[in-house]
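Re: that backbone. Tokens:
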């Protein structure tokens, strides 16, 4: 029976729980195959190579992942022409003790995620190459949420995001209980959870197509979400039933997890947060 369990976590060290073997997938290709304006201005081929506080965006993501016990392999999904440049990033060639594979990106992010997961038989953590505020603790919390199977979605409340930075996000998913932002961090317990990805696979960015959205989510579910008639927990429980796979929202206490690098505005915000973290470490 599909069901949903909401899990709210406070920050924790990645080593706090039993190690769960898993594969990490980093989606790092260009959006729509176009050169990102910030990457072009910085003179790099991909946004994941963009420097922030002295290091490429992707390096922060890899560093967080390799600090989590149980990580067996990293798969970086990117255009083949960018592999050589990415290999120069610390950790991207396996020198931190975790093997790294490269998967050719597909036309859509959903297809890319599906291709990257091909052949993986155990738990998977999926994130993006610009998720610079990713932490080992958040990854561990996702793995803990996958212990019962299914899919995990990392989210942060509006209050937590704005506490991390007053301009951290401008758009939130509104539910009956509260408003939330996604954190570009997802977990799948194994191949059986890929049925959710397969559901979305057909349409690419289906959310721009109302008929496709209705076919996937269901008209009544869209109505409930549109008018904020259900809580986050209830919404995920309904989606669990529709997909036939347990969907667990993992609400992270640190709202900085919802801040990645999408544009110059969020770049400046992420930079401020990273500099603050470095200042705290230096004390």
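Recovered sequence:
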């Amino acid at each position: 029976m599909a069901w949903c369990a909401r899990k709210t976590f406070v920050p924790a060290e990645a080593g706090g729980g039993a190690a769960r073997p898993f594969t990490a997938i980093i989606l790092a290709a260009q959006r729509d195959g176009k050169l990102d304006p910030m990457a072009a201005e910085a003179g790099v081929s991909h946004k994941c190579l963009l420097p922030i506080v002295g290091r490429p965006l992707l390096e922060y993501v890899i560093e967080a992942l390799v600090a989590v016990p149980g990580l067996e392999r990293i798969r970086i999904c990117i255009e083949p022409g960018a592999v050589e440049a990415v290999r120069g990033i610390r950790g991207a060639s396996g020198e931190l003790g975790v093997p790294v594979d490269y998967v050719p990106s597909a036309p859509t992010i959903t297809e890319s995620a599906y291709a990257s997961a091909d052949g993986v038989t155990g738990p998977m953590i999926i994130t993006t190459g610009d998720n610079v505020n990713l932490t080992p603790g958040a990854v561990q919390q996702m793995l803990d949420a996958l212990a019962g199977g299914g899919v995990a979605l990392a989210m942060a409340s509006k209050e937590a995001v704005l506490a991390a930075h007053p301009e951290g996000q401008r758009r939130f998913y509104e539910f009956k209980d509260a408003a939330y932002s996604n954190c570009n961090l997802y977990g799948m317990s194994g191949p059986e959870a890929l049925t959710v990805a397969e559901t979305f696979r057909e349409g690419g960015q289906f959310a721009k197509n109302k008929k496709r959205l209705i076919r996937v989510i269901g008209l009544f579910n869209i109505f409930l979400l549109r008018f904020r008639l259900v809580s986050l927990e209830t919404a995920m429980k309904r989606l669990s039933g529709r997909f036939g796979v347990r969907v667990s929202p993992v609400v992270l206490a640190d709202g900085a997890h919802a801040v990645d690098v999408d544009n110059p505005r969020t770049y400046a915000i992420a930079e401020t947060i990273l500099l603050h973290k470095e200042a705290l470490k230096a004390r």
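Residues 1-17, 200-207 have pLDDT under 50 and may be disordered. The two ends are 50 Å apart (CA to CA).
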